[in-house]
Specification:
It is built from 16 helices and 16 strands. The protein is of the alpha/beta class and 407 residues long. The strands form 2 sheets. Strands 1, 2, 3, 4, 5, 14, 15 and 16 form an 8-stranded mixed β-sheet that branches. It is globular and about 65 Å long. It binds N-(iminomethyl)-L-glutamic acid and fe (iii) ion.
Length: 407
């Protein structure tokens, strides 16, 4: 099977073999010129058209960009929490909802009460929705288990999901998401430590916040990650300034995620480090959180990333184009910066950058054809600009009104 994607208004070209692009270099790093792209089997073969290809696709007026990488989601989970959103909109803070038995604990109860099959039905549906919005790789997280066996079950269901979807999936064990009722945080970290060594897991994650874990626990998770050959990732500075970033950097974190309440003194060291700043503007908007200093991080040269944070509590969002629209408006990012942040830089967070995340000969043919030039992606806020999705050289999604492109 080979594809010839022809006559595009823009083809996004990234620097060769770059693991990531620091956002202060975004303007010169990615070019958007008219052109074409061909695939051979699962890989990108050339930046040319090929009349002998198995299938030719007309990209008139369109942009050819890399498949999107959603490096921070909480799939798989069970059910939703719409009633909490109504409370938040009425002015009740997240911490208060969580302390009253809502939040993560309520999703943990739902997870315990839902069969494996039903959890997978929901996760599959969300993965399908993500695919239709251009996401060809994503992260799963455990974290709604809150018992050792339930965390193992979450990781097992994440692996089952990974095996059946067309996307490339990487698993994170969010072993410290909330302190189970009746336990101390330290006792929970003792209990969960053996799970850190199990399964095909790329990273360990922890939620550092007054309602969850503290800086000492973050350091412990860092040690656990290093001892087990996992990356350290951390939910930090979401609702309050805990000064988690220096601790995360000291422990060699691959990413720090959220950062709405980042301390100004921590911005420079983070931007200079080989640690991604994963911003989650959907959670910020829907949770009425502060806005992360996205512009300042980009200007200081951070490895800037955006993701959906898809979860039933703070961000029930599956669309990376929507997230890009928010990043452009709220951080003052360019469409190029947003594109880099949801492709190559996000792939680096998941250690997928050698295989995918940019359009390069020899890389996996994960390609999105947008229905318009890239500038429309943030501008037509709420519109799904994804016309065709190609994963591993296969056409895996065609938006109904875009079928004409296939001839
Ligand atoms: O990324 N803040 C911690 N974890 C999630 C929310 C989890 C939940 O509310 O279910 C987040 O925002
Ligand atoms: Fe999260």
């Amino acid at each position: 099977m080979s594809l010839s994607l022809e006559n595009a208004a823009q083809v996004a070209r990234y620097p060769a073999a770059a693991p990531y692009v620091r956002l202060n270099a975004a303007a010169g790093a990615v070019t958007l010129e008219p052109g074409a792209l061909t695939t051979d089997g699962a890989h990108i073969a050339a930046f040319d058209s090929d009349v002998s290809a198995t299938r030719r696709i007309d990209c008139a007026g369109a942009a050819i960009v890399p498949g999107f990488v959603d490096c921070h989601t909480h799939l798989p989970f069970a059910g939703w929490r719409a009633e909490e959103y109504a409370m938040k909109v009425a002015g009740r803070p997240y911490e208060e909802i969580a302390s009253a038995g809502g939040g993560i604990a309520s999703s943990a109860r739902a997870f315990a009460e839902t069969s494996d099959d039903d959890v997978l039905v929901q996760a599959r549906t969300l993965a399908r929705e993500m695919l239709a919005h251009g996401t060809t790789s994503f992260e799963t997280k455990s974290g709604y288990g809150l018992s050792v066996e339930a965390e193992r079950r979450a990781l097992r269901l994440a692996a089952a999901l990974a095996a059946e979807v067309p996307q490339t999936v990487r698993s994170t064990a969010l072993l410290a998401h909330a302190v189970p009722p009746g336990m101390t945080a330290d006792a929970w970290l003792d209990a969960i430590a053996p799970v850190a060594a199990e399964g095909d897991v790329t990273a360990l994650d922890i939620y550092v916040e007054s309602v969850a874990f503290d800086l000492q626990h973050l350091a412990r998770m860092g040690d656990l990650a290093r001892a087990n050959g996992r990356d350290l990732r951390a939910h930090v500075e979401q609702f309050s300034t805990m000064r988690s970033v220096p601790v995360a950097l000291k422990h060699g974190a691959r990413s720090v995620d959220h950062l709405a309440c980042l301390h100004p003194d921590d911005l420079g060291p983070l931007a200079a480090a080989e640690c991604a700043a994963v911003l989650l503007p959907g959670a910020e908007l829907l949770g009425d959180e502060q806005v992360a200093p996205g512009r300042a991080l980009a200007d200081a040269g951070a490895i800037g990333v955006i993701a959906t944070d898809c979860n039933p509590g703070t961000s029930p969002i599956t669309s990376l184009p929507l997230i890009a629209g928010l990043a452009v408006r709220r951080y003052g990012w360019t469409p190029r910066e947003a594109l880099i942040a949801m492709t190559l830089n996000a792939a680096w967070v998941l250690r997928l950058h050698d295989d995918l995340g940019s359009l390069e000969v020899g890389k996996r043919a994960d390609v999105v054809i947008l229905d318009a030039p890239l500038e429309h992606l943030p501008y037509r806020f709420g519109h799904n600009p994804v016309a065709i999705v190609i994963a591993g050289g296969e056409v895996v999604h065609v938006r109904e009104d875009q079928a004409w492109r296939l001839g």
